Amino acid sequence: MTEPILSMRRLGKTHGVGAQRVDALVSVDLDLLPGELVAITGRSGSGKTTLLNMAGALDEPTTGEVIVDGQNLATLSKQELARVRRVSVGYVFQQFNLLPSLTAAENISLPLELDGMKPALARELAEKSLDEVELGGMADRYPDQLSGGEQQRVAIARGLVGPRSVLLADEPTGALDEATSESILKLIRSRCDAGAAALLVTHEPAYAAWADRVVRLRDGRVEGISVRSKTPSSTADLS
Amino acid sequence: MNGRRAAFKVATRNARRNRKRTIFLVLLVAVPVGLGVVVGGIVRASSLSPQESAQTALGAADVQVYLYAAVPGVSEWVRSTVGDLSPATSVTELRQAGVRIPGVGFAQVWDLDGSDPATEGLLLLLDGDWPRADGEVAVSPTVAERLNVDVGDVVELQDLSTNELEVVGLISRPFSSEGSDILIQPRGLVSVEGSLDVPVESSLLLSGSEAEEVADQLGAAWYNEGQQLYWPEPAVDPKPSELAFLDDQMYLLLAEAEIYELVDLLESQEAGSDPVAAVQQLASEMVYGSGSPRSLPDLYFNTRTQWLAQGSVIDDPGFVSTGASTLLLVEVAFITGAAFAAGTRRRLREIGLMGANGASVKHIRITVLGEGLLIGSVGALSGVLVGLGVFVLARPLIQRYVSRVLVGVGVAISDVIGPVVVALVSVLLAVWIPARTASKVPITSALQGRMPALAPRKWVIPVGIGCAAVGVLLVSVSLASESGLANVLVGVGAVLLVGGVALTASPILASASRLANQVPAAGRLVLRDSGRNRTRSAVAVAAIMVILLAPITAVTVAATTTEKDLVYGLPSPGNHLVLASSFSVDLSDYSNPISEQDVAAVEAIVPVTRTALFDTLDLRVATNEMIEGQESQDGGPVFVANFSDGDDVAVGTEDLLAALGDPGVTASIAAGEVVVLGIESKETRVNLNGREYPAHEYPVEVVKWSMPRVLIPEAMLGLFPDVPTRPIALLVLERSPTNDEYNEISSLGLAFNGGRSPMSDSTAYLIASGVSLLVVLIVVSLVTAVSAAEVDEELRTIVAVGAPGSFRRRFLGLLTGYQTLVAMLLAVPLGLGLVWVFSSAQDFVYAGPFGLVQASAVTVPWPQIAVFAAVLPISIGVLTLTSVRSAPVTPPRRAS
Amino acid sequence: MSVPSCELLRGLEPVISAPIWVRVVVGKKSLDAHILSMYYWYIPSMYGGFVVGIKEGLLCLLVKNEGHGYQLKQDLESATSDTWQLNIGQVYTTLQRLERDGLATSHSPDADGRVTYSVTDHGRAAARDWMAQPVDLAAAGRDEISLKLLMALVSGVEHPRRVIEVQRGSIMGLLQDYTALKSDNAHDDFAWLLYLDRLIFSAEAELRWLERVESRLDDLPAFSPTVGEKQPAESMEVTP
Questions:
Q1: Last residue of a domain, one of B696, B730, B757
Q2: Contact at CB, A96 and B5, closer than 8 angstroms
Q3: pLDDT reading at B129 higher than 70
């Protein structure tokens, strides 16, 4: 069995104390294997984004632990956490994912360059990454010269550039129309099929359905998990 | 740590993307730097550095030995003594004579050898060749121009040579474009000395590595043995015992007859109550008072080391340029800080994105600081370039006003480094707090564009007060010292004081925002906005505060000066002119009495309504009022006795009374009373030549200096039969003379006073208010402009919920008015405090005929300041209200 | 806690064909719930097969070309990317009905004994008419899940939330499978994708409906999961 690339154990998050105490997450266990796309759904306030933020080392859990690439985040310093965000996980948000003052390629190479990679090499990897999201010719465009869908593609390319292998997508299609959304999901799916792992937060069942596993959160707890059939391709099943 | 380059790249891109803001801030930085460069260049152009001064005086030599009142033999004595002390030290004689040449005026005549290494650099050869033989001469361009000659021409200079002289070269003094200089053949002055009617000044230049040591030993040798050799024998030897109190050196200069005259005076009644003083007075007059003062031969030394030590830090062009730009850059730093504080809030999401992509706290700080660094360096660089450009363009103009020759760029690296460094440091300091704030925001909040509300930092008030206290301490301690370093420390102290007070703006705004629920909507929003966006609003307040310091201190200093001037009488009216004396060509001084012609000459220039040509008497005037509790520097009592410079008394002629136009004065003089032109109406006593007379003082505005303050009726003239009278004139003009008229009067060769009204308090106040209103408006508009984007985003919501479009104007008007008010509340105590700290170091008393006042006393013009403090915020608010656009037309700024 | 009583207002027939109105009464409070009927026939593998459309399908094919029974069956199957597996007998019956109703005419059998049908003017109009009519979603057949939920509510055999969760898990799995099929490039033809999308949207609608039912359940005090519990203040949602 493959080792999970991202692993959460009895993850809990509490905001406030006393009467203001709110449990955002209660003892969540979740593993993400390489090549796997896991969707997290649930209503607003169910803890989806909190979970994602802790997976991406943006937030610290109150209880439990997060292990990314074999590193327990709780044992890392702030500098090292920043490094995890540079080299292990990549974020895609709903919109405004790109720094407006950098070109597409520069946006993608930013985490690599921040990690000290030579600009030329980072650029090379960024261009490769752009090819993978089918935006080969757009390396030198600025975000305001890209459509919403293209911006999200660039963000996905950035999320998986170089050594990064875990994509954390928080409602990546929230600001897009139906058809573009589907192409974005398809892209994430194909990147996962190519070996990346992705954690997708969405409240749209149709988008969650692209995942191998759909984890439904309710009030900070896992309410249910539905798994895709391993071989769903026979048409006969549908008659 | 790697990745800095990437963070810096984001910084440069941000600067490029916000092009308008970047250009605006770059210009803001460039202006003070450019100004500093220009000011530094002007200072450099108008002064000589210590090295240059040394070259002007010494050439290539190391010591100049002046042979003062030289008698034959001194020069030889020096030469032989130096030769004994140090054979390696060479001695060159330098001779100069100030000769009046027809068509040229005074010219300095030199006879040095152009090829002598010792005098190299004293004169520069611009063209042609050095004069080497009789019949050759070199002149400075000024002389060449006045005589209309050029190299190769022939001139006649009768004093210098009976023959015609050929101009073989053009010379000039180093660093100077002016000056009439004539260089004749080496040692030429020795041969013509007899035929000149002016003395040839002679000095000896010592050069060599031991020259300065030799000079020390030479001085000692002169004191021990040399001077005895060349000083005259006393005319009466031994010195009469009665004159034992006379200075020995002065005694040596007295002739026999004079000695006996002094002895006689001592024994006669004429000497008055203090015969010793009278004798000393007479002896001084005998020795120094006549047209050709006598003196004993002496040696004075001027060494290169002394020249080099002369420069003070504050005279250095680099220091001046740095100081000039620092003043403005403090202001620029505040505005830049406000711009970055507003920008950071707007760009929170981008900061969050960087954080989510693994940028560390340091990286984020670099992106903000890097932008500041970029703006600072581009601004400083363009400031330097613009400053150099302006200076080079203005050089012909500057050359007209300065005597030194401007060569090359005219601005040294050292003039540029200061402003550039200050610009970089101040911009980096200004963006430091926004950078820190940006890097401290949690990434999850930043991603949502939320800046967590910051509690007022507890350390701000103590640190602010501490800074201010240290500033006060530094200023007062440093003011007591005179060194160049102390001047720097005074500046540092003042900046600390201002900075400390500025720091308290933030907590003040925070506490004021708690009152928000007590006021109507627009005011509430203003209070809340200033309280919440404290970084932005506090720097805005500080920026305005710094500007307000100027009028507040100016008004206070003006009021204080007026108060102090009052001890010398009421302020001079601008339309009075007192002609005191005219130039005497024979004596080369202003010793001729005023005549009808002089008055007529002035009347030909300006319209005069009344003229009084009246006699003055040279009497000793005193009120002899002892000032209780005051001691003079030598411990004696202090008297209010300082009447005007001549201690003169005027004769109250009809003309004068009419010119003064004061009925009280006229009546008193008619009644035979002595009148004092003072500051209030009261009975008093006046001591004239040791006798007291009752007098009446009237408040009369007369010219402060030259004009006698005591008037006596003509009938009293008989009381002072032996006192010579001297006529002076009081002219009452229709109006104050214009600048041109004033200059024309100046060129008449008269010693005169008046014609200039010192700026009255109210004028100074009006000008200060007007100028500060203007500057505050500029600063306010800059600050509002940089924060408008942020403010507009909030206003959009307010208008969306139904506020009228004019709400924006009301809001911005109130905001600027409020910020000006808070700035004013800080600036008033700070400004008064600054004046107080600076004057507290002055430990003396202004004592005039009409009272005395401590120099450290500060007169605060409370009514003016109160009106200023109340009116300025309102006017700023109203001006903003009427000038800004109504609806929030700025569309929401989107990151994409 | 009182067990809520549930009063069916109208329509609970073995075949529910209209929106179901339920009044749920708890103590003195009551709530009218409007449970939309399900369009079960769009989701064949869940609720059964297609019951309508053969007639209209054949008619439309005839408008394009005349043809005999087996040919028409094959055309129809290929047009629907083999998602309709038709019985040849059903085809012949339907064709005879078309002829009976004057929508088509039959020609004499050819050499192989195959009867060719062609469309009549009346049939052409009927086909056009059919296209112009909206599908009557209210004319649904059995709606098992609605019934199950209502029964759970009334009988207490199972907690309704559990019913929803099980149903949701099942539909979600289905949706994942459909989506997986969609990403499978082997089926890159239009009709296939059209049907897949149809299925996906229907499943999605079902999930939405379940979501809504769940919310309504939450509003019933007896079923509220959060009684005495604070709603988690998750404030991390980025709202556009």
A1: B757
A2: no
A3: yes
∠ CA B386-B391-B393, nearest 5°, is 95
- Contact state of B444 with C236 under an 8 Å Cβ cutoff: yes
Question: Chains touching chain A at 3 or more Cβ pairs under 8 angstroms?
Answer: B, C
Determine what percent of chain B is predicted with pLDDT higher than 90.
9
Q: Are residues B90 and B27 located together in one domain of the fold?
A: no
Is-contact B81 B226, C-beta < 8 A?
A: yes
Whether residues B579 and B696 fall in one domain:
yes
Q: A195 lies in which domain range? A: 6-228
Q: What is the mean pLDDT of residues B278-288?
A: 79
Q: Do B6 and A97 count as a contact with CB atoms less than 8 A apart?
A: no
Does pLDDT of B352 surpass 50? yes
Task: State which residue of chain C sits closest to A219, comparing Cα positions.
Answer: C232
CA-based nearest residue to B543, from B331, B781, B778: B331
Point out the residue among A59, A100, A114 whose CB comes nearest to the CB of B896.
Answer: A100
Q: Can you give the length of chain B in residues?
A: 896
Instruction: Give the HSE-up count for residue B699: Cα atoms under 13 Å, Cβ half-sphere.
Output: 7
Q: Identify the three-state secondary structure at position B298.
A: strand
The Cα-based distances of B508 to B534, B574, B827, B889 in angstroms read 10, 46, 13, 32
Cβ of residue C233 closer than 8 Å to a chain B Cβ = no
pLDDT digits (tens, 9 = 90+) for B421-468: 989 998 998 898 888 888 888 888 888 877 776 666 778 888 888 988
Instruction: Identify whether A202 is part of a domain.
Output: yes
The answer to whether the complex's ipTM is over 0.85 is yes
Residue B494 included in any domain: no
Q: Do C238 and B444 touch (CB under 8 A)?
A: no
My answer on whether B124 and B73 are in the same domain is yes
The answer to whether residue B888 scores a pLDDT higher than 70 is no
pLDDT tens, position by position, A75-112: 999 889 889 999 999 999 888 889 888 899 999 999 99
Block residue for tokens 């990151």: B895
Q: What is the pLDDT of residue A1?
A: 56
Chain C residues lying within 8 Å of B348, measured CB to CB: none
Q: What is the pLDDT of residue C22?
A: 38
Cβ pair B16:A95 closer than 8 A: no
**Mean pLDDT of the B762-782 span:** 77
A150, pLDDT greater than 90: yes
Can you give the pLDDT at residue A152? 92
In terms of CA atoms, which chain A residue is nearest residue C225? A219
**What token pair was written down for B175?**
């660093």
Among chain B residues, the shortest Cα distance to C239 is held by B448
Smallest Cα distance from B321 to chain C, Å: 52
Q: Please report residues of C whose CB lies closer than 8 A to that of B442.
A: none
Residue B727's domain comprises 572-757
Chain B: residues touching C (Cβ < 8 Å): 444, 447-448
Range from B225-234, B584-593, C130-139 carrying the lowest mean pLDDT:
C130-139
Closest-CA residue of chain B to A78? B360
Answer yes or no: do B341 and B437 share one domain: yes
Q: Which of C184, C233, C238 sits opposite A22 (nearest CB)?
A: C233
pLDDT-derived band at B30 (thresholds 50, 70, 90) equals very high
In terms of average pLDDT, the best of A219-223, B308-312, B371-375, B639-643 is: B371-375
- Which residues in chain A (155-174) have CB-CB distances under 8 A to chain B? 158
Residues with Cβ within 8 Å of residue B216, at least 6 apart in sequence? none
Decide which of B593 and C10 is more confident. B593
CATH number, domain C52-132, options 3.90.1200.10, 3.40.50.1820, 1.10.10.10, 3.40.1010.10: 1.10.10.10
Check whether residue B747 and residue B768 sit in a common domain: no
As for how many domains chain A has, the answer is 1
User: Residue B678: inside a domain, yes or no?
Assistant: yes
Tokens in use for C133? 């009519």
Same domain as B705, residue B610: yes
Residue A58 C-alpha, separation from nearest chain B C-alpha, in angstroms = 7
Q: What is the domain-level CATH number for residue A63?
A: 3.40.50.300
Per residue, the 3-state secondary structure of A163-231, as one string, reads: CCCEEEEECCCCCCCHHHHHHHHHHHHHHHHCCCEEEEECCCHHHHCCCCEEEEEECCEEEEEEECCCC
The span from the CA of B761 to the CA of A222, in Å, is 80
